[in-house]
Amino acid sequence: MSFESLGLDPALLRAVRDLGWPKPTDIQRDAIPAARDGRDLLACAMTGSGKTAAFLLPVLHRLLDAPTRATRALVLAPTRELAAQVHADLVDLARHTSLRGAAIFGGVGMGPQEQAFRQQVDVVIATPGRLLDHLSQPGRYVDFRALEVLVLDEADRMLDMGFLPDIKRVLAQLPTRRQTLFFSATMPKPIVELSRELLKDPVRINVERVAKPAHGIEQALWPVSEALKADLFIALLRQDVVGNVICFTRTKHRANRLADVLTHAGIPNARIHGNRSQNQRTEALADFKAGRVRVLVATDIVARGIDVEALEHVVNFDVPHLPEDYIHRVGRTARAEATGEAFTLVSPEEEGDLRAIEKAIGRKLDRRTLPGFDYRHVPQERLEIPLAERIAAIRARKAEERARAKAKQERRDAHAKAEADRQAKRGTGRGGPARGAAGSPGGAGASHGAASGPSRPGSAGTAAGGGGRGPRRRGGRGRGPGRPGGPGRP
Ligand code: AMP
Predict the structure, then answer these.
(1) Rounded to the nearest whole angstrom, what is the distance from the C-alpha of residue 237 to the centroid of ligand 1?
(2) Percent with pLDDT over 70 in the chain
(3) What is the 3-state composition of the chain as percent helix, strand, coil, each rounded to the nearest 5?
C-alpha cells in the first residue's frame, strides 16, 4: 500500500516524499483512513511504529480541508521530550502548508507559549500540567471553543505518571463534540476505562495484540555481577560492540555515577534525567544527536519521546522492573524500518524481572559473554554508594568543618584575650573587657552583628560560600568556618 492510496492532501503527500518514507507503516495504514473519515480511534502502538504520523497526518488533512484561524487540534503527551518530538514531526509534515503548531511544556518560560495561544495556532501539543497552568491564568487566553480533535499520545504513560486528574481537568474545558484519537502502548484496565469514557464507537487497532518492540531489533542479554556492570559496559564500548548508545539506569543517582565513571574512563557522555533542567536536557540530547558525545545516560523518564535517527544501540544498564518499560526503551532503537541492537546487562538479582519481560515478549533472549573480559576481577570503583554511606560521609564532613571552626574560634579568643591582657597591663583597658572577648565560650551575651545572614558555623552549605564569614552567634561560637582552605587568621 502506498501513501497516495490513503486519500491525504497533496501537500502532506509531498512532505512524506520529502522525508523519504517509502510506504506507510502498519499503524499508519490502519489508522489514517479511519481517522481521516472522522472516526474515533483506540490504537495500541509502540514508539518506533510510526504512530506520530499515524495521528498527525489525518489531523493535518482535516485542518487543511477548511482552514480557519483557531486552535482546532490538541495533542496531550506525557513528557516534554515527547511533546517536542511530536511538534518537530508536525513541522516536517506541515512544511508545505500554512498550518502551525506549538509545543507547550514546563521548564521553560510561559511568555512565548502564551503568545502561541493568543495567535491561535492550529495544533497545540502539550503536557497536561503546563497546559493546566495556562488554562488557569487570569488573562484567559486559551481558547479551545473551536477544538475539533483531541489526541492522547502514550496515554498509559500519562496515567503511570499520575496525570489522570490533570487530564480530566483539561477534558472538562474541551468541547464534548469532537474526534478523539487515543494512542497507548499498553492497555491496562485504567486505560481501557478511560478510553470507554472518552471514545465513541472507536475503530480499534492492534488492541488485542500484545505489545511488542518494533521489528528489526536484535535483543541480547549480557549477564554480569552488579559490581562489574560499569566495567563491562566500558569494555563493550571500547571493543566497539556498542557504538553510539542510550544507556538507561534505574535511578538518577546511578545515572550520575555512571556518567562520572564514563568520564573517568575518557568516554564522552551526557546525562538526562528528571533532576536536570530543561536547558540541560535539551543540550544533552543535542550533543548526543550531533555526535559530540557517544553515550547518553538516561533514566526511564526520557525513554519515550526521544527520537534519534540511526541510533545503533540501547543498553539497559539495569533490567527495567516492568515489561512495558523494557519494550519502550528497546523501541528507542530500530525506528520504523531501521535495525538496531538492544542490550540488557543483567545481574543475578535481576533474573526475576527478566523472566517477566521474556514472558511478555514471548521468547527467551540470547545470552552473550564478552571474550577477554575478566568476569571475576574486583572493580576499582563502586558504582552505587549506598544511601546510608552517603549520609555518613556528609555527617563526617560536617563534623570536620565544625571542629575546624571551633579550633579557629579558640585561636581567635586566645588572641583577643592576650591582646586584652596586654592592654590592661599598659593601663589602657579600663573600659571593661575588650570587645573581641565578648563571645568567648560560655559568654551569654549576643555578640555584635549576629543573626543577619544564613551562615552557621559548621554548616556545609556555607563552608564554601562567598568568602566564608558567618555572622557571630549567641553563645560565642562566633565566625563561620572561614575561607575555604584558609588557615584561619591568628
Ligand atoms: P514514532 O512516531 O515515535 O513511532 O517514530 C517513528 C519513526 O519512524 C520516526 O523517526 C519517523 O520519522 C519514522 N517514520 C514514521 N513513519 C515512517 C514511514 N512510513 N517510513 C519510514 N519511517 C517512518
Answers:
(1) 28
(2) 81
(3) 40, 15, 45
Q: At what angle do helices 189-198 and 164-171 cross, to 10 degrees?
A: 0
How many angstroms from the chain centroid is the CA of residue 452?
A: 38
pLDDT tens-digit map of 147-205: 999 999 999 888 888 899 999 999 999 999 999 999 998 777 788 889 989 999 899 88
Contact status, residue 200 vs residue 176, Cβ threshold 8 Å: no
- The two domains 3-205 and 217-388 share their CATH topology (first three levels equal): yes
Distance CA 434, CA 443 (A): 13
Confirm or reject: Cβ of 335 under 6 Å from ligand 1: yes
Average confidence (pLDDT) over 37-55: 91
Outline where 178-270 has alpha helix (H): 189-198, 229-238, 252-264
CA of 49 to the centre of ligand 1 (A): 6
Q: Is the CB of 47 under 6 A from ligand 1?
A: yes
Q: Does domain 3-205 have CATH number 1.10.3210.10?
A: no
Q: Whose CA is nearest to atom 6 of ligand 1?
A: 50
Per-residue confidence (pLDDT) for residue 45, from 0 to 100 = 86
Which residue owns the Cα nearest ligand 1 atom 16?
A: 50
Give the residue with greater pLDDT, 482 vs 431: 431
For residue range 262-271, what is the model confidence (pLDDT) as tens digits? 999 999 999 9
Find cell 465513541 and name the residue.
200
Amino acid at 145: R
Q: Is 333 in the pocket of ligand 1 (CB under 6 A)?
A: no
Is pLDDT at 452 greater than 60 in this prediction?
Answer: no
Cα(127) to centroid of ligand 1, in Å?
21
> Which atom of ligand 1 is nearest the CA belonging to 85?
3
Pocket probe for ligand 1: among 52, 95, 157, the residue whose CB has the most ligand atoms within 8 Å is 52
Q: Nearest Cα to 210, choosing from 319, 305, 306, 323?
A: 323
For ligand 1, atom 21: residue with the closest CA: 21
Biggest CA-to-CA distance, the chain = 107
Q: Whose CA is nearest to atom 8 of ligand 1?
A: 336
pLDDT in tens, 268-310: 999 988 777 778 888 888 888 777 888 999 987 665 555 555 5
* Domain spans in the chain, listed from the N-terminal domain onward: 3-205, 217-388
| The CATH number fitting domain 217-388, selected from 3.40.50.300, 3.40.50.1780, 3.40.50.1260, 3.30.450.180 | 3.40.50.300
pLDDT tens digits for range 344-371: 999 999 999 999 988 888 889 999 999 9
Q: Which residue has a Cα nearest atom 19 of ligand 1?
A: 24
Average pLDDT taken over every residue of the chain: 81
Ligand 1 within 6 A of CB of 25: yes
